[in-house]
Write a structure and sequence with these properties.
Belongs to the Brp/Blh beta-carotene diooxygenase family. This is Probable beta-carotene 15,15'-dioxygenase. It is found in: Cell membrane. It contains twelve helices and no strands. It is mostly helical.
Length: about 290
């Protein structure tokens, strides 16, 4: 049982809710850019499907929490890694490009999903147990061999950085982040990466693109509405858990942040990773 979160932990979780979580709130504006806003029926259909996917993800977490947590970690690796490496240019043969891209995605995406839990095994084990029950320690056990794969990918990435200048800055960023997640408490390390690195990079990468299709006012209003809706969902989830008496207030706060984050990650990934990047990016870049 986690009865008392430190002040640092509380600030970290609050940052995820106030800064990190809303970075996906601009999905409505993105959907409009991709053509869902051509009619009221299409935008309503998009919102319904988005909420259904989020609700289904949350339901899976409640029914099979260990499976849901493991799936969330895998999806996070792909989403974080894809988002944080899309700006890197990769010249060379296609096989080399794909192999190096896979290494980049794994290394960037595994920073807080593989490296951080290994650095802070005891603390993260407690968090995983709160999120998914005692069987969640199986995930910690699986992360140890995953670390070997991560290190191999990091070595390949580092070697590429020695010969290609465009990778040097990214490799330096990774080295700094590795030190940071080692020194900081796990929740603080996750919050720094999620809020300052990933969310900031995601927002800046789509901001100019969205303004080619819709106004700033529409972007901000739609983002504000979806942000408020996500916070309302979080409040409902938190109070339902505290009122049940099964979790302490701090445990309910942890579960609220990560279950809500996981639930919104699935539709966010489908929109951003499978629709936005291969379509809107082609339109907006020469």
């Amino acid at each position: 049982m986690i009865d008392i979160l430190s002040v640092t932990d509380l600030f970290a979780l609050a940052a995820v809710m106030l800064i990190g979580l809303p970075h996906g709130a601009f999905d409505g504006a993105l959907a409009f850019c991709l053509g869902f806003g051509r009619s009221p029926g299409k935008i309503i259909g998009f919102l319904v499907m988005y909420l259904l996917l989020a609700g289904l993800s949350a339901l899976i977490w409640l029914v099979s929490p260990v499976f849901a947590l493991a799936g969330f970690l895998v999806l996070t690796i792909v989403h974080f890694g894809s988002g944080d490496t899309e700006h890197l240019f990769q010249p060379g043969p296609r096989v080399v490009q794909r192999s190096l891209k896979a290494c980049q995605i794994l290394v960037h995406g595994g920073m807080v999903t593989i490296l951080l839990p290994v650095f802070h095994t005891t603390e993260v084990s407690q968090l995983f147990i709160v999120l998914a029950g005692p069987n969640a320690v199986l995930i910690i056990d699986a992360l140890r061999p995953a670390l070997k794969i991560w290190l191999a990918a990091a070595c390949i990435y580092a070697s590429a950085a020695l010969f290609k200048r465009q990778y040097a800055a990214a490799a330096g960023e990774l080295a700094g982040l590795a030190v940071l997640v080692w020194l900081l408490p796990p929740l603080a390390g996750f919050a720094v990466y999620f809020c300052i690195v990933h969310s900031r990079r995601h927002f800046t990468s789509i901001w100019k693109a969205m303004q080619l299709f819709v106004s700033r006012r529409f972007i901000l209003i739609s983002g504000g509405i979806l942000t408020a809706a996500s916070w309302a969902m979080g409040a409902g989830l938190y109070f339902s858990q505290t009122m049940s008496g099964s979790f302490s207030p701090d445990e309910a706060f942890i579960r609220t942040v990560f279950i809500l984050l996981a639930a919104l990650t699935v539709p966010h990934m489908l929109l951003v990773d499978t629709m936005y990047r291969p379509t809107l990016k082609k339109i907006t870049q020469p």
